[in-house]
Every structure is written in C-alpha cells, then in structure tokens.
Design goal:
Length: about 800
Amino acid sequence: MKFTRLGLCLLLFFTAFMTAMGQSQRKNNFTISGYVKDRASGEDIIGATIYIEELKTGVATNVYGFYSITVPAGDYHLQYSFVGYKTRSMEIALDKDQSINIQLQEAVVEMEEIVISSERPEQNVTEVKMSTEKLSVEKIKTIPAMFGEVDIIRSMQLLPGVQSAGEGTTGLFVRGGAADQTLIQMDEATVYNPSHFLGFFSVFNPDAIKEVELYKGGIPARFGGRISSIMDIRMKEGNSKKFAASGGIGLISSRLTLEGPIVKDKSSFIVSGRRTYADVFSAFAKDTSARKNILYFYDLNMKLNYRFSDKDKLFVSGYFGRDKFKFEDDFGLSWGNKTGTVRWNHLFNNRLFLNTTLLFSDFDYNFDINDDVLSFDWTSNLREFSGKLDFTYFLNPNHQLEFGYKAGYFQFSPATIKPVGEKSVIDAFKIDKKYALEHGIFLSSQSKFSEKLSVEYGIRYSLFQNIGPATVLIYGDEQNRREDNIIDSVKYSKGDIYKTYGGLEPRIGARFMLNRSSSIKASYNRTRQYLQIASNSTAGLPIDRWVPSDKYIKPQISDQIAAGYFRNFKDNTYEFSVETYYKWMQNQIDFKDQADILLNSTIETELLSGKGWSYGVELLLKKNVGKTTGWIGYTWSKTRRQIDGINGGKAYRPRYDRPHDISVVVNHEVSPRVSVSANWVYATGSAVSIPKGKYAFQGQPISYYDPLDRNGDRMPAYHRMDLSITLKQKKKLFGRGQGEWNLSVYNAYMKKNPWIIDYRNVINGDPKIDPEDNVTVDTEEFKSVTTYLLKIIPSVSYNFKF
C-alpha cells in the first residue's frame, strides 16, 4: 500500500511537470536567464531582484544565485537590484533567448541607509512565505555577545516565536516544539548537536556563514524530517576575485578566515577556523592538578567551488568541530560533528535548473572515567548518508515549479562500553546498532493569479523504513511494555525491511495584497518526523540519545495553521507584523517518572506517547533604516501535552512552555567609526517540578515528586540586558586592511538568573502515603539553594579583515 501511494505521487508529479512544460511553450515568448554575483568577491547573491519596468513584473534569484524569466518579445528596461548594492539597469531587444550574468557593486552605505535585512525593502509584504525569519551575518555581528563570541543561534532566539530553554542551551524551541523538532542544516547537511561548551556557544563560525534563514511555519515542500521548524544555513563560497583574510582575537577564542581564487573568476576557496585556548592558560596554573585539565573546542569550515561552464558548477564543503573536556585524570568528555556536502549545479536550458547533492553527517561523543575499579570508555555515534535531486522549472514570471527526491541512510550506535585496566569491575556492554532508510519526494509551485493574490502550494511524500540486521523484541502486552513482559524476539538479516511508515505532507500558503504597503497571509503545513531525541532534559546535552521510529515508536506528525497581517510604514523604514498560529502534534513521546534512559537497551519500555498542541500570537516591529535600527518582538504562547500514564492522563506543560517572551534589539551609529548596540530580553520562567517531600530508600533520602503534577511549578522569570560598543580604527591596517575593537557586557545590570535550584534541609511535616509506590512520604517545607551561572561577563575582542 505504501509503494502504491508513492507510485501515485510519482505519476501525479510527472504529469504536472509535463503539463506545465507544455503550457509554457508559447510562440513569441523568450527567456532571459543567468546568475547575479557580487562584483568584489564573485559570491552568488541570493534573493537579488530582476525587474522589467514595461511589464511591471520580475523574479528573484534562487538560493544558488540563478534566475530565469520568460516574457513576450519586445524592447525592455531591466533593473538588477539587491539591498546594499547599487542598482544596475540595462536595455535589451528581446527577440531570442538570452543569457545575462550580472555583477552588482556594493553601495557606499551612508549612516541613514543602514539596513538590517538582506531582502528587498518591501519583500516582507509582497512575498507569499510567512513565519520566516532571516538575519544577515553582518547584522548578527552587531548584536552584543557573551565573551564577544558572535552566535547565530542565540541571535535567532531574539526573534518572536523562538525561545531558549535557559542559560547554557543552544537549542531552538519554536512555536511549542522541542529542540530536536528543529532541523538545523549547514550547506544542506544536518548538524545533530549544534552546541559547544555544553550549550553556551553554537558550532557556527559567523566568518564562514553567508546566510541564515529560519522557517517557523509555512515550510516549503522541499524540506522534511522535522515537525517544528527548519534552520537553513549557507556557507560562503570564497572570493573568486582576490585573496582576502579576516579574523578576530578574543578573551576565550581566536578565529581566522582565508579565501581567494584558485583560478580567477572560475574557482575559489574559503577556509575558516576557530579555537578556544582556556587549556593554554591552565598549563600555568599554580595548582598542579589543574594543569592536567583540558578544556577547549575548535571549528574548521572549508569550501571549494569550480565553474566548468556557464551550465555546470561544482561545490565541495565540509565542517569539522570538536569539544574536549578533561578533568585531571579522573573524567573526560568529548563530542563533535562532521559534515560533508558535494553539490553540482547543472542548467539543462534557460528554464530548467538542477541541483544534485551528496551529503554526509556524523555526530559522536565519548566519555571515560578513570578510577581504581570503575574505569571504562564509552562511545556513541550517529551517521547519515544521503543524496538528493532538486529541480526548478521557470515557466513564466507568474509561475515557478520545484520538484525533487531525497534518500537517506542512517546508522545509530547508541553505546559501546569497554572496561579500562585489569582492576576495572565494569563489564563490556553494547546496545545494538539500528539502521534505517528515509525517502522523500516533493512537488511545489508558486503561482501569481493576480496583482493581489499569489499562492504557493506543494505536496511531499515521505517514507521511513527500519532495516536489518536487527533483533526486535515481542511483548506480551504492547501497550504496557516492560522487560519482564518480553515473550519472544524476531531476528532480521542485513537489509531486511521490518517496519515501514509513510504519508503525505501537504503545504499551502497564500498572500493577498490590501494595498501597496500591506497584506494578509495564511498558511497550512503537515510535517512528519522519524528521528527524535530520548532525553528528559531540555539542555541539549551532548550525551542525548537519538532514536528512530520503529515498531513501538511511531513517527511524530504535526499540522499547523497560521495567519498574519504585514504592514510597512514611511517608505519601508518600519516593518510591522502580527501572526497567530495553532499547531496539533501527534505521537509526542515523553518518559515515565524515574525513567532509566542512558544504558537502556529496551528504550521503548520507558517511553509513552500521546498528543500535544500549541498556539500563540507573535508581534514584530522592525526599523530598517536610519542611524538607529533594530526590532521589538513579543510572543504570547501556550504549549501542552497529554499522554496516558503521565500526570494522571491530564494535560501538562513541557519544560519549554514559557507564555511571555519579549526581546528588544537596538543598534545606533554614533559616527562612521563608532556604533553602540543593546538588547534586552524577558521570558516567563521554565516549567519545572519541585519536590513535594522525601522518603527513605535503603537508608538514603529520596526526593518525592507528585506524579499528578508534572511541571506544575515555574522557575523565576528570566531577564537580562547586554551592551556593546564597536570602534573602527582610523588608519588602514598594514596599509590595506580594516580593524575594529569591540567591547561588550553580557548581563549588564547583573540580574541573578537561577540556573539550578536545589532543595535541601527538609523540615518534617505530616506524612502521606504515595498510592503508587506505597511508601511514607514527608510533606515538608524545603530550603532552596540556588546556583546563579552568569552574573555579568565583560569581554573585549579585536576583529580585522584585509
């Protein structure tokens, strides 16, 4: 049945494509196509506008800088434009198909023209897509940062609908979704754990990044695999005109980026590295034991590209990053990501564009304990190999078709434990590997039905298959899975398919123009997710365990509807939007009380599943031009889960439910050399469970949590202010480069935001009987001990570029 549906999708897919191709072949119509690039660096420009004055129509370049527009024969004035660049105009006599590659020159930016978006000024109103946030890397670099480390994910957390779980987390919690429900990809390869330093920094070096876009809703059909949001990060391609260098020196890390042509105007490279050096200073510590400590992380981004012809271009990129902690000789923890992308762009003709991609992702961690009798080494790994084909067919200025296919292979290695030394009492232990395949095929279209109404619609079919080798346990009661309820097992050989899931994922979005400066939009999308993290923490720890859907864990399914009003004021100086959404989520997993996760080879015995829902309102006011720029964002939201066996079957709040979230971001140009920035954030405290008492077990006091009140309490509200000032040097650095100093203060007014609240010193009260465990529990008043992690952090850094 699954393959019948897939075959039907393929039939509809190619029928629609051939029909569209036939309808587009009209007499006296000709096509203008080509690439738009940065004149100084040769980088492709994403989202540049090509506008035909006589027809009052135009198109934008795709994510690879390519454009195509088909119009009737005639004499036309073309305008090529992009924010921050000089508009280039030209006249053409269109009597045949023409290929026109354009290079745009960066404009001299006056103080009154500072922009914070890499989009056309009115695009937030006129484009169909909604629930999408894009930040330029240059804007991200102006936001005050902890330790002076510019951070892409933390910057995204300042936008409406995007929340943080608290200090020391780099996860994105978007519109009621968990962190693992956001797909984070760099150059189209998945990054499974985007954190450094246990969550205080992200793995993305801004010097290597070209563009960042976050889809909170209205997710295009080409994306799949996550039910909450998509974070699409594109690396720079490298300067194909001349050699260039940039970097910075900070209190905890330094970075260096080198780029330049291999063959001028034909191929280029970029190499970008970053490393912390806390371990270097620890070598000089007075305490000899501290000298053995190791504490650092590093990143390395590399990318090459080569243009074989006007129709073929090859890109090869990779990321390598690692964290390493070592405390004397007692304990060590290490984790890292590796990604690889090989991409080939091919132009079949001036309308049909193909991007072929091979992808590799690897996330691994290991930790070791060295003790006289408890010495062991633990390793874990997740790998993905995938490939995809993405076609774009440009029918005419009002109609564009996208279609493609993706296949992926996954290998899960949860845990392998080996004893170290002859005295170790730890036995060798291994949780069996799991293997899976995932397929996705999609078709989407953009249609402009009139000047007021435009629609983007599409459909995706995804298929997930568990494959052998594997041993699947059989339980006497599948609804009440316990280890003592295992009655049999079934073994599958290598390559055998033993469980298949699949289904359709429709997407649609519409925009209706009210007038030249305002519009209303609406969207609906269904998404499916086949991988999830098995963790009872929201912190995004490196030892979190990824598990696939299988016989007992069903894929998560989400349906989201959204509607919004968008308005620009004062010649696009200000942007305002208000969006509301409602999301239904099926097969949400959570853990039983006191679940055993880490070394569990039967993880399904600790999991329960049910439904979830989330709804809210997001407001954003943004100022784009002038000496002072920035935005104010506010989110009101509510998220609930309801799972039989948890909280007595009643709805409860997940940890990341934070009803109120406010962010204010301001940048002010004092002079051409001096700029100041500030941001202020406020969020309702995270939902938590506070112990209600304690009981004795084998002579040890154990905290008691009310099983009918999961996450019924809250941490105190979180808020802080960050400040920074940037001073550019008057003189050229070494006669040709530019240098600048940045001073920043994180948590400037020293707000004590709790990181951990520990309850101790219990005073005995009236006893209760826990009906589930039948133990006596003291209902008592607790004295709390609160740990405040980051009170105030000043930092200074020096940045340069040649």
